[in-house]
Prior knowledge:
The chain is of the alpha/beta class and 568 residues long. The protein has helices at residues 11-15, 22-50, 108-120, 130-139, 144-151, 154-175, 252-256, 281-296, 312-317, 319-325, 368-378, 389-392, 415-424, 440-448, 483-496, 512-517, 522-525, 527-532, 535-545, 552-567, and strands spanning 60-61, 188-189, 197-207, 212-216, 227-232, 244-249, 263-264, 269-273, 304-308, 331-332, 339-347, 400-404, 428-433, 452-456, 472-477, 500-505. The relative contact order is 0.14. One 2-acetamido-2-deoxy-beta-D-glucopyranose is lined by residues 224, 226, 251-254. Residues 126-127 line the site of one 2-acetamido-2-deoxy-beta-D-glucopyranose.
Amino acid sequence: MGTDSPSPSTAPVAGLGAKGAARAVAQHHQAVVGFLLGFFLVLLLYTTVSSQFGSQNAIGVLQSTSTSPAVRTGQNAMTPTSPSPKPNDVKKGDHIKEDNKEQQSNTPNKMEEDRTQHGINGIEKENQTEAKLDDEKVKNPEGGQAAVNDARSDRMEEEDLIRQEIDQGSMIKNDTNIGQVTPRKPICDLSDPRYDICEISGDARALGANRTVLYLPPAGERGADSQEWSIRDQSRKYLEFVGNVTVRSLNASQAAAAPACTSRHAVPAVVFAMNGLTSNPWHDFSDVLIPLFLTTRALDGEVQFLVSDLQPWFVDKYRLILRNLSRHDVVDFNRDGGVRCYPRVTVGLRSHRDLGIDPARAPRNYTLLDFQLYVREIYGLPPPGIDVPYKEQQQRTMPRLMLINRGRTRKFVNFPEIVAAARDAGFEVVPVEPRRDLGVEELARAVDSCDVLMGAHGAGLTNFFFLRSNAVMLQVVPWGHMEHSCMVFYGGPAREMRLRDVEYSIAAVESTLYDKYGEDSPVISDPESIHRQGWQFGMRYYWIEQDIRLNVTRFAPTLHQVLQMLKE
Ligand SMILES: *[C@@H]1O[C@H](CO)[C@@H](O)[C@H](O)[C@H]1NC(C)=O
Ligand SMILES: *[C@@H]1O[C@H](CO)[C@@H](O)[C@H](O)[C@H]1NC(C)=O
Ligand SMILES: *[C@@H]1O[C@H](CO)[C@@H](O)[C@H](O)[C@H]1NC(C)=O
Ligand SMILES: *[C@@H]1O[C@H](CO)[C@@H](O)[C@H](O)[C@H]1NC(C)=O
Ligand SMILES: *[C@@H]1O[C@H](CO)[C@@H](O)[C@H](O)[C@H]1NC(C)=O
Ligand SMILES: *[C@@H]1O[C@H](CO)[C@@H](O)[C@H](O)[C@H]1NC(C)=O
Ligand SMILES: *[C@@H]1O[C@H](CO)[C@@H](O)[C@H](O)[C@H]1NC(C)=O
Ligand SMILES: *[C@@H]1O[C@H](CO)[C@@H](O)[C@H](O)[C@H]1NC(C)=O
C-alpha cells in the first residue's frame, strides 16, 4: 500500500482524468491500461522465469516431518538443510544435461520458461508454432533448445526483461490505434481493456489450421460487406506472443464460396489459447482457468474447446478441470484440418481482473469463492462447511503448516531454522519444494490437509485454491515495498475465498540484499527511489536478487498470532 506498484484493476481508473475529447480519453485509458498490463505481465513473467513453481507440478512435498502426514516423498527428496536450488533433481534415464544453475529436463516446464522468454522478446514467434517447439523438445531434449537454456544466465534474463519493456512500450502505442472501427453488426467486442472476444451465432465454421472462424449470415442478410477481425484468443490482449485468430463475417459472394462443413456439432465451441504466460501456476489460473470458468461454466459441460497453441502438459495437468468444464474432446485447433460447424462459437476468454472474478459481470454472479469451491469439488476435497482439519479432526493436536521454499528467487536461506521455529511454536510442519513428479490431485489433498499455507510472495501460494475456508495463508513479504503487490496477487483473492490472510513483512536485515548492498544503499534504505527509476529496477532487486533469512525471533509473534486464530 502506498507504493506506486500499479494494479491493472485499479490504476487505470486513476489514469482516467477529466480529459477533453472522449476519444482521447479512451485512447489514453487504453494506453495506460496497456502499459500497466504490460508491466504486470512482465512482473509475473519474472515469477515464471525465476521460479521453479513454474514446474509442471506446481510444488511437491519435499519431506514430511516426523509428525506430518504420509505424503509421498519422491526418489530425490532432499533434506531441507540444503538452501540452494537442487541441481540434481533430474530423473534417472532422462539423459538430460544439467547445468549447475537450474534443473533441466524435458518436461514442458523448462521449455515453457524458455519459450516465454523468447516470445516476450518477440523473437521466433512469427514462424515457430508452439506445436513445433513441442515436437523439438520432445524429440530432442538435448538439442538446440536445451543449449539455449544452458546459455542463459540470470543476467541475460534481466536484459531480456529490459528489452521487453521497450518492445512492450512500442507495441502498446501502436495498439491504441487499432481496433477502433465499430462494426456494423458487432461480432467482436474489442472494448475491454483486458481481452477481446468474438461471439458468432448461427452458421459458424471453424478452420483450425487457418486459425480462422467464419460467420455466414443467414442467406437473406448477406450483403456486399464483409468484415474481419484478428484477436488474441486469451485473456491478455496485449500479450504479444499469444497468436491471433481471425474472425471473418462473409458477404454474399464469399459465403457462396465458403468451405463446406466437414463435421457438424450440436454444442457451442470456445476457441482459446493455452500458451502465453502459462506454466506458472498463478498464470495458469489467472490467465486461462478462471477466464475459462467465466466463459464456459454456465454451459454445464455442453461446450467444446478448440484450443489454439495447445499445450499437452496443460491439458494433462488440469485434466480434471477441463473435463468438467467440457464433456467433449479437446480439439488441437492448430492441427485440425477440418471445417467444424457449430451453432455458436466464442473466440477468446473473458477476464475481469488478475486472478479474480467480478460477480456483477459473471454469469450466475459467480464469485472467486464459487470458483474455488468448484475446483475443490472437482478434486474431491471436502465440501464447504467442513472446518479446517485442526478443528474438524479430533485427533489432531497441532495445526498443520505447509511451508513452501521457493527454488531460485526469494528463497528462505535458513529454511531448516524456520521449520524448527514453526514446530517450536506448535505446528506440525510439511516442508515443500518445487517438484515435478507430483500431480495436482495429490498436491490438492496435501494442501487441503493443512491449516496454514506459508511461503514467500510467489506462485507457490496459488495452491491456496486447495485450502479450506478459514485456513490461513501466511505470506512473507520480501523487502522493497512489495506489500501492495502481495495484496493484489494473493492477499485480496485469499480474502475473497474466505481464507485468513496474514502477511509478515520482513525487515531490511532479513533480506540478503542487506548483506549484498549494505544498509546505506538505496536498495535497502529507499526502495521507493529504486522503483522510481523504472519497474525493471524494482524487479531486479526485489523480485529476483533477493533471498530471505527470516529472523525467527521477530517472526515468532506472527506464528503465535496464526496459532491463536486457528484456536479461536
Ligand atoms: C519467417 O520466415 C520467413 C521465411 O522463412 C522469413 O523471410 C521471415 O523473416 C521470418 N519472419 C520472422 C519474424 O522470423
Ligand atoms: C509502431 O508504429 C510505428 C509507426 O507506425 C512503427 O514505426 C513501429 O515499428 C511500430 N511498432 C511496432 C512494435 O509495431
Ligand atoms: C485455409 O488455408 C489454406 C492453406 O493455407 C488455404 O488454401 C485456404 O484458402 C484457407 N481457407 C480459408 C477459408 O481461409
Ligand atoms: C465480397 O467481398 C470481397 C472482398 O472484399 C469482394 O471482392 C467482393 O466483391 C464482395 N462480394 C460482394 C457480393 O459484394
Ligand atoms: C492480434 O490481436 C490483438 C488483440 O486481440 C490486436 O490488437 C492485434 O492488432 C492483432 N494482431 C494482428 C496482426 O492482427
Ligand atoms: C462437473 O462436476 C460436478 C460436480 O462434481 C458434477 O455434478 C458435474 O456432473 C460435472 N460435469 C461434468 C461435465 O463432468
Ligand atoms: C448479477 O448481479 C448484478 C448486479 O450485481 C445483476 O444486475 C445481475 O442481474 C446478476 N446476474 C445474475 C445472472 O444473477
Ligand atoms: C531478530 O529479531 C529480534 C526481535 O525483533 C531482535 O531483537 C534481534 O536483534 C533480531 N536479530 C537479528 C540478527 O537481526
